[in-house]
Design a protein that fits this description.
Number of strands: 14
Structural class: alpha/beta
Strand order of the largest sheet: 2-3-4-1-5-7-6
Radius of gyration: 29 Å
Order of helices and strands: EHEEEHHHEHEEHHHHHHEHEHHEEHEHEE
Largest sheet: 7 strands, antiparallel
Amino acid sequence: MFLTISTTGSPERPATDLGYLLHKHPGKAQAFSTSHGAAHVFYPEATAQRCTAALMLEVDPVALVRRGQGKGRGGAPDAALAQYVNDRPYAASSLLAVALSGVFRSALKGHCAARPELPEQARPLRVEIPALPARGGAELVHRLFDPLGWDLVRAEPVPLDERFPEWGDSRYVRLVLEGELRLADALRQLYVLLPVLDDAKHYWIAPDEVDKLLRAGDGWLAAHPENALISSRYLARHKRLTQSALERLELVRLAEADGSEVEELDNAVDEAADADEPGGASEGQEGPVPLAVRRRDAILAALRDAGAQRVLDLGCGQGQLVQALLKDPAYSEIVGMDVSVRALNLAAKRLRLERMGERQSARVRLLQGSLAYTDKRLAGYDAAVLGEVIEHLDPERLPALEYAVFGSARPRTVLVTTPNVEYNVRWETLPAGHVRHGDHRFEWTRAEFRAWAGSVAERHGYGVAFVPVGDDDPEVGPPTQMAVFTRADPDTTTDPDTTTDTSADAGTTTDTTTDTPKEGEAA
């Protein structure tokens, strides 16, 4: 099992800097013990003009069988003899990927203590793998490597036997990659894609494999057009793990498109947070009815008045409203959408989706998505609710939300609730000048909210009415203000097939599993 990495240089920038990057001296041949054999690193050539590092893995077939524990092609083939006579010692696979991550660990992380400036420099690289199993053929190799910035991707099929060309090609290819990349990026791509192409792993897939995949895929996997296929194969088609990986990759993609950090989007609060607002008791306790409960009651009343049956809860958080809607059989379809994976996981747990009966589960879906983009999945519904959502967005992002909901999805009824900042003076525990939640980007007065809602309604053909939520103070108004938008042409529905969709297909439902994409050939 063999891999070479070559680079070129000049007297000012010698190619032997590759030794610093790999943390392996070009003048030495080194051996490293692995769980399935020995890994050798040596340099067939090392000059200022050209330097090549080779990684050769000698696999011990007996150790492979003993450690396989019945997993993978090396551990449990159909025939007993094939446990010892197989392609694992010769073909690049997850064994080579694991050796790569162990032997070149610092290079993979982009660390170089001796020359810290080197890892950030792109350099001309040539990677060669003489025997790479590719289930999907050369075409799949190109689908995986072409989007990653390589100038040359060459995958030459290896014939079954050169003496008998009529037998055709084997499932192995000779891989050559050439391009100007950072070494760490190239190594991380190989670490992920070698087992993906082989479509087999020699070890048990545990939940922490999702973290390994996302770490190695940082900077390239979220935007890769084949990220669903890569995730599925890397995780050995484990459906729940694949779904988890795709949800987290979608969050990364949305954060990159939004120019924000993942933590800013995935900012779910604890389950009790909505009941802990100033001025009310927590749910289940004696005292005033919590404002969160009064908001939900007001929303439910408005939905009943609108005669809605198919409802979107946009920014559903931990699923409190979805749970309330499920209790009423009048609602035939309920969709909760949130950008936060943590919030959706909490919502699934609250709703007990895994234990829900078939008839009940057919009424509800949880989707990951962002209201900053149009989404064809949101078209054709009777009503949409944005409960305490808009104040979590930067004001300059409100036009994108406005178009996604009122311009693209266009439900018959839209309910929007938001805090009334005038009422904040009534919160005894809220310091003057503070907003009610640390993530609120703004809080509007009644006049500001009415001006925004009125302009939105006028631009998109809606009428709007305003409803107070909570005690309506004669001086400062209610603690929460709600706008009820009604489309002026309620008999017109939006065709989901004609709605622009700029969101990734990786937005998955929490109550279903991720389908494995087509891969060009039978596994």
